[in-house]
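Predicting holo structure, alpha-D-galactopyranose bound.
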Amino acid sequence: MSAGHIDGPRAATQDAARALFADLTGRAPDGVWSAPGRVNLIGEHTDYNEGFVLPFAIPHRTFAAVGTRKDDRVRVASTFADSAVEVSLDELGSLFPTAAGSAPSVPEWAAYPLGVAWALQRSGTAGRGVDIAIASDVPVGAGLSSSAAIESATASALDDLWDAGLDRTALARIGRSAENEAVGAPTGIMDQMASMRGEVDAAIFLDCRTLEAQLVPVGIAEAGLAILVIDTRVEHAHSTGGYGERRASCERGAAIMGVPSLRDVSVDDLERASTLMDDVTFRRVRHVVTENQRVLDTVRVLREDGARAIGDLLVASHASMRDDFEISVPELDTAVEAALAAGAIGARMTGGGFGGAAIALIEQEAVAAVSDAVTAAFAASDFTEPHLFTVTPSAGARRDA
Ligand code: GLA
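Done. Tokens:
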């Protein structure tokens, strides 16, 4: 992975990772690696149904300052935890996999990097002990994939230091293994793929069945537009509750339709589906099936007509998540409604739902007006004040130093 230019706020985060490493070890790291969070432009809860997604990496990054040790211990430290966690490489196999439905036996933040080390080991990569110091400016619990950013930064570092020689897609799979089996969150692979494969100015059109990825230029800035993130500050976690239930409903729907996954159900099959299953399962299925079609339509519209033309697809996606998949919350609905009322071209919740963030596609000159309108709507509903910031499609995982 090549070194890259780092702008102001990101440089401070890299410095924090280096300083933490120095505190921990009294020396300089062998290198610093980083990986971004993501927003998803469209295609929600389609990844684990082997469907289509269109995320992009955001400027916010997680930095891992890493150095090898002479022994076989792995020590991880993070600026958002008081103390480091240390285990031997041999012990990783007894920590993971985490039994389904139970919490990891190390603090959750440490299960991400340790889970990556474990998954690499399991895939046949051997390496000596390492010290890992992590700092991040990806908002945590905001649906912007702070966990995938940790996994991807750690996977990139260990791939280099342990000479694993894995490609980006293989490293994304390692990250997902950590998420699924070390942390116990039954997620798909979208976030890790976005974090590993992100590119400046492009979204990643990913076929989650084949993991074939195409870069789609989004042209948002060229069109005079911006993507505003509205972090509702309603924290969510996918290791508990609703996310796994939605996934189970999708699997049930696919089984009733007699197909391996909902990827194999088309919009034309929906009428028949409605006669075969209960109403709730049918609505879960309808969300996934129509969302897959909306991803395909968004890619086509972006290519043919440009970013200004995708607004209705974003709005339809939000309605489907709110009404059929039932993963929105009042704060997300308020964010979307207030942004649209203030002139946004499109808006939708992004990520797994049950909290987290919404995105709005807006005119560049409307950033202040839409932000003010959303903030006012939150205040009027007595919601916690949201965090608002714009994002541009940014680079994926890399070695910075
Ligand atoms: C979370 C998961 C992803 C994906 C999204 C919903 O971000 O980590 O795998 O399922 O939710 O699209």
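The pocket of alpha-D-galactopyranose is lined by residues 40, 44-45, 47-48, 187-188, 190-191, 238, 351-352 (CB under 6 Å).
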